Amino acid sequence: MILVDNVGGIFPAINHSPWNNVTLADFVMPFFLFIVGVALTLAYKRVSNRAVATMKAMLRALKLLILGLVLQGGYFHGVNNLTYGVDLLTMRLMGVLQRIAIAYLLAAICEIWLKSDDEVISGWSLLKRYRFQLLVASILSVVYITLLYGLYVPDWEYQISVQGSINSFSVKCGVRGDTSPACNAVGMIDRNIMGIQHLYKRPVYARTKQCSINSPAKGPLPVDAPSWCQAPFDPEGLLSSVMAMVSCLIGLQFGHVIVHLQDHKERLVHWMVPSFSLMALGFSLDFFGMHINKALYTFSYTCLTAGAAGLLLAGIYLLVDVYGIRRPTYVFEWMGMHALMIYVLVACNIVPVLLQGFYWREPKNNLLKLVGV
């Protein structure tokens, strides 16, 4: 995520896809949600008091949510001119940490409360023990697909400020089941519930061919650019976060394999079969028109990324736990143990603010200039 934020504009392969299809960057968020689910199975392997465990999970999620509002709501911004603070009327309400908090809380509650006492002796009995969690994931998927393809999206308008003047734009829609940047149900729900002023101001689709002459990099608008190119759109919106919860719930099922199966071969088989199946389903759905799209967090995108995460988990397990090759993974282990700290310090501009925040006489004479940057 740090690489995407800082050098994604230079290397399109590690920047987010402008709309449909995926790049390497588009696997980061679902991978994180997936491994959160896996970790939860270990954290709640034995729960002595469900009510206490639920309260702790709610408190942890609340802390993440508040931290996300402070950081991604806009408090640490304006790095180049050293400004800070945020207008509550226009602050961004959703973000990466908020999405993780929501998905984590649902998955934690499912793991604490929704599991039977059935003995696990096979893959089928494993599914039976956690059938209610699978039911929740299925219901969420059906709700998401129904809303995405069933809601009617009317025409809408928005305003942006350009050099002190207010420009108004009108976007023509009047469609149902559209997944284009302008007329999808994900954006409509966010605009109506949170308000367009609280959405992300730099939409990913600004790098599409319709909106940038330098696509897939960001650039000046083409002469015939459509009216929606500068409209706010939140990539971590409300409806798309429903499928983010499903990614976390899928991670739970992979974590259950660690908890209940001890044999290396059994674990690998119970990871690789569903992983390949999910990836095949994702590609098939994309072929038949349910496009793989990170910004909308489509069902096909969920399947593809969850399957890829499962294969990566199996590969790392084979390398580290089966063959005992741990040295190459030490740096990733350290990063995993301090993921939130790294994210806060670097990805949310605290380190850049500190580097540029101390200067001699003029802001340009800061620590970066001292080291020749």
UniProtKB/TrEMBL annotation:
Asked if the record carries the keyword Membrane, the reply is yes
In its keyword annotation, does this UniProt entry include Ribonucleoprotein?
Answer: no
Q: Where would one find the signal peptide in this protein?
A: none
Q: Transmembrane region positions?
A: 27-45, 57-76, 96-114, 134-152, 238-259, 271-292, 298-320, 340-360
Sorted alphabetically, which keywords does the UniProt record give? Membrane, Transmembrane, Transmembrane helix
What protein name is recorded for this chain?
Heparan-alpha-glucosaminide N-acetyltransferase catalytic domain-containing protein
